[in-house]
User: Fold Epsilon-sarcoglycan from Monopterus albus.
Amino acid sequence: MISTMSAAAVAVWLGTVVTILSRSHADRNVYPSAGVLFVHVLEREYFKGEFPPYPKSGDASNDPITFNTNLMGYPDRPGWLRYIQRTPHSDGVLYGSPTAEHVGKPTVIEITAYNRRTFETARHNLVINIMATEEFPLSYQAEFYIKNMNVEEMLASEVLGDFLGAVKNVWQPERLNAINITSALDRGGRVPLPINNLKEGVYVMVGADVAFSSCLREVESPHNQLRCSQEMEPVISCDKKFRAQFHIDWCKISLVDINKVVPVYITRPDPGTGILPEFGEYNPPSESLKSRDYFSDFIITLAVPSAVALVLFFILGYTMCCRREGVEKRNMQTPDIQLVHHSSIQKSTKELRSMSKNREISWPLSTLPVFNPLSGEVVPPIHPDNYETTSMPLMQTQTNLQNQITIPQQRPSGDNYVMSTFRRLEVNGIPEERKVAEALNL
Assistant:
């Protein structure tokens, strides 16, 4: 935790914005070890004392305070160091696991606290001096996935101590320490739904100096591997020692023996002296640029395609207009018998068309005028000229007419005759007697 520093604060008032220039800029040094989990809590209560006292309205002890952490001279933190603060009313936490490559390099972290109600700010420096130890890293490392914890809950000292105690009961090592803690969201996990108090999940890596216990190796059995492939919970005998407080996903446990891991070395080229080799004297281009004439380029780009298009146009015009054979040349190349055959077909077609224009068609009785032989009157047809007859039969029987002629008609079964009624019609002023004669000849 950050210890309280006795420092006089000088407040610079700029309207409603207050900036704290404090002697608490004095560096605070911490000494974590490489390969061991580093946790540093930023307490809100401590930073409240850094703000100058003046009359405030409301509950000043519950002001929202947020923190910004960055490497001095850079906008972000080092790659191994993470920061989390769930709400402005909770403490911030810096955590991570430094590696051996950071040993001997002091890391200065700038911590800026913001009071979101009064717009006051306070800044402190945290110097992290990473130490190298021969005991770390430990040879056997196991990573557990705890489903019912968030990362800030797991970083609490009492919760982390309870978990390490449960692991020690199962593993029975002489030395045991937490190596790293990672949120499941940093491993590609999804944010849980805000129901049933679901947690994000956290990965906890621990190290020990003895081989893995039989309980931890139960997850490697074929039976449990089959159950994990079927998305079923494996059967672990020591799960009950964790179940009271920690729900562990045993299918995601990782057991690593670093003594058996083959190191992979990446060869890097040796850095040079920083001096370029000798390539001769550098001759920069002239400051005065000569103008260039693009007329020839324009002619080549435009004239050549135009000439080709013109030649093709003349060839097409000559082919379409000057190479036509004509009717006379076609007839000269056609045999005489074929010409006579086509001529006879053409004459017959013309003759049929002329005959079709002159043929007479007898009009339907419903459209012809009716002639009265006694009085000589011409009775108009039943329907006028503008009557629609497209949907009616052409031969329609007219009834209820006074001027009718009764014609006897022979029955098919005997010599007796029956009387049939016909109308006396005229076509172009000539009585149509042909209908009556045909009926008498039946």
About this structure: The chain has ten helices and 19 strands. The chain has three domains: 1-136, 138-266, 367-382+401-440.
